[in-house]
């Protein structure tokens, strides 16, 4: 025992729920401490007499532990080391384990000596709206001071290694009743609901169910200690198959239709994290009914120096002493405006702590608690308040003054009292965050001085303290009533649980309105009195904002940043509202509240990302020939989710050299392209041809079986959306191809029209993109290679003309052979069932090897098609380009009654000569390649801003033509053929000169299509 | 996140669906002699009410079927789900249909007439 006393000077020898047989060793700022299993970092530090745990956000003021839960605003620490480090964790929520490493934040060089604290001396220069005002200064000033300010402000530092080594998971769950909060009322609600057979999920952010009741020493239920009641309820719930208990799980988000998000800390409390478990798990729960038993937060009092280490919320001190046996001080002054602080006084008194005095702002406090306190010999100063606390790194003395009932005036002489702990009790605020996220309304309770839920939007109900029902017996009764009502809406029922016999101190929950306590000095003098501790917002800041003209609560919030820190104003909102209302000489309900946003408490981004990171972030699609491309040393480009071979560099070739070689080979011998990624849609039904008539701009009814046709698809605004070749496989059977990137979108588009506009058509669509592997063999030797590869079809022009399709076998593989061309050469698109893709590719390469067959990638494909002036949808088009703009009038049927986009093309504005039209460009210097995206002007010497004609859409060096070629969308371009245009360049380079031409640069008569 | 009852698959998370915007927009054909401005009512203008809205949805990550929905854009209450080609059955849905400005647009009148003609 002697040893423990030494290690834990402030630990009660017996009380508390920590496991005294299991000592836990941890470090804080490099110093080793001991605590017990069951301690939080906060309780363990307090038990070691450590109050100073951090520096504040703006002024770098020393800060301690203020609360005992999620509402903690001061004690933010960095936990873990290296890649595992996580900043801004609330010490009140961190469970200690052997070897835990924690550090204070926002201090330099050390917590006790912090140079940033000079901010505190300069605080006149850091008023409300500091950043806004600073931005008004000359920009040069801001630029030079920004890094200093950024360094000084802010909270903790992220892990040194940006790669989070931990694993996080997501899980989905459904239940009839979700109960948020596992205190006494939450447990009761869950138990009552579960008795009906409903599936119940009960989540609580702490390691142990029971909430505040785990820290009350003055409550008995059915003749037993309150904790025995908790243990009994938990064991009953554990035994029920329809109940899921989730400790260490915070319900942080409440979305439409009762969709809630929970974050379960699975291994955060373990000294080593088992590999089979995720560190944290996000639960996505869809609940039919939700019961919110989220409790309440105690409010601080706003007085000078209320942020010193050793100034704490009264309920928190009681909880530390009773639940953890951690004694937060030896000599205590309590300042209160309500009864609850008396329970704390009695509890601490029982632990042998000296209560120097209770300063009660009420002029005549009365009731049984008051009597008990006096019987215990504790001095009560009615009509008094702590008006100022002082001390260097911890509170050492307070001023206690007689004050007016609202605390706004000091009415008599100050008394100075030595102390090492100051407790403040400003009344309770229900934790209405989730209710508010669920768009539930709040009402101002002018007796209990708090906002509590009034009406609901979702199927949810708040119970107990979260509903403003602070009395335990009443809360338990309400919990069971609300749970019964919830299950009855689900057509379930259960017997009402017999109400337990609760014996607790009789207390009033009606504080007096005290929003800011005067310090007896002229306004602005004396030490700061904080409202929002985490964002360093003082009562004076709020008053200043009002004087500067900010009257709306939303504006004051943003201007002062009150309530905008990671604690979301859990302890500060009501005090801020009270001060604002007073300054505006208005009432709190008229001033209104701001909206609570997700998350209820800070949630790890890693947890939110879950497994959707790195390789699992998005699908990567590869073709069946991919292994060959890899072996051949292909470089890749992403096309949507597809990985496509870009070019195949050989012997250290540059990209330019490799692409030029591939482009030349495809026109001189033969090239082979993996075209498997092209979108492919199988279209069947007796109205298939009619459907294509409506989808494409050209006519399809008379296309013979076995023939192919190029089609252009428009949106109904007449703009090009996709293109491709479609083949008639049978009378009522077509094979459509789409662009690689457009495949999924086109299928959706076709389905939309079929289902929503033309349901009368008998057409069925199936995506077959991944059912076929496609190799495109192109070039003058294509036919010969195909035959030598063992093609069984007659490939003569008569038997197999351009734009037709045949079934055949190639190298013994069943194939669909399409004679179509995207290069302008004799070309075959060979489709085989997907699994034969690699075999086909190898067979063609083998047969082609003696002839110099050359595999080519997507870059060469782009050059080859550009030489022929073929467009690429999405490169030559951008959603504002019609077929007429592209000079493709020939593909737009004049005869058809209807096709998508027909009416829109007839709009007068479509004939506007200012529309950009697709043209070709040849540079005066044939070696000069115009950058894609470059803008054309007629006169490069005109003053800026220049009148721009349009932009280059595709631009390449053509090794076959031995000159630079480009396509561009230029205003009235078709009429400007032969005109010179210029492309001004950056960096003082001379403008590039080019002449507008036709778009077909190579083989304009199409003579090469037949090899 | 909404809970949407797909008429084919049952209740599913909103994440499985995609919203296709306003429902019941009749499509005029080129043969309808309406002006470009009137055609623009069909092509570009969409109703965007604060309140009851008739809209199209698709069970994109499920059965891929389209259907109609009557939804309150303020409360997110789903009042009714009904098949493509059908009209709303609830009074709220019927009222929202009837009071939509589109019912009086020339584009719609022309499109509906063509449809009737086609049906004969």
Q: What would you say this structure looks like, in words?
A:
- The complex is a heterodimer of chains A (1011) and B (120).
- With 1011 residues, chain A is of the alpha+beta class.
- Chain A contains 25 helices and 50 strands.
- In chain A, the strands form 13 sheets. In chain A, strands 8, 9, 12, 13, 14, 15 and 28 form a seven-stranded mixed beta sheet that branches.
- In chain A, α19 (655-668) packs across α24 (858-867).
- Chain A is elongated and about 115 Å long.
- Chain A starts with a helix and ends in a 14-residue tail after the last strand.
- Chain B has 120 residues and is α+β, with helices and mostly antiparallel strands.
- Chain B is 26% helix and 28% strand.
- The longest helix of chain B has 14 residues, at 106-119.
- The chains are: A alpha+beta (1011), B alpha+beta (120).
- The interface between A and B is medium-sized, with 25 and 26 residues.
Set out the fold topology.
The complex is a heterodimer of chains A (1011) and B (120).
Chain A: H1 2-7, E1 19-28, E2 31-37, H2 41-47, E3 54-55, E4 62-63, E5 76-79, E6 86-90, E7 100-104, H3 118-121, H4 130-135, H5 139-152, E8 168-180, H6 184-194, E9 200-203, E10 220-221, E11 224-225, H7 226-238, E12 243-246, E13 249-255, E14 259-265, E15 280-292, E16 296-298, E17 311-313, H8 314-324, E18 331-336, H9 340-350, E19 354-360, H10 368-375, E20 380-382, E21 384-390, E22 397-402, E23 415-418, E24 421-425, E25 428-430, H11 433-437, E26 442-445, E27 450-453, E28 460-462, H12 472-489, E29 502-503, E30 530-532, E31 537-538, H13 539-547, H14 553-560, H15 573-583, H16 588-591, H17 605-609, H18 626-631, E32 635-639, E33 642-647, H19 655-668, E34 671-674, E35 679-684, H20 688-695, E36 708-714, E37 720-730, E38 733-738, H21 743-756, E39 764-767, E40 772-778, H22 782-788, E41 804-810, E42 813-819, E43 827-833, H23 837-848, E44 854-855, H24 858-867, H25 902-905, E45 916-923, E46 935-936, E47 950-958, E48 963-971, E49 980-983, E50 992-997
Parallel strand pairs in A: 1-7, 8-9, 8-15, 9-12, 15-28, 17-24, 18-19, 18-24, 19-20, 34-44
Antiparallel strand pairs in A: 1-2, 3-4, 5-6, 5-7, 10-11, 10-29, 13-14, 14-15, 16-25, 21-22, 22-23, 26-27, 30-31, 32-33, 34-40, 35-38, 35-39, 36-37, 37-38, 40-43, 41-42, 42-43, 45-48, 45-50, 46-47, 47-48, 49-50
Chain B: E1 3-6, E2 10-13, E3 18-22, H1 36-43, E4 52-58, E5 66-72, E6 78-83, H2 91-99, H3 106-119
Antiparallel strand pairs in B: 1-2, 3-4, 4-5, 5-6
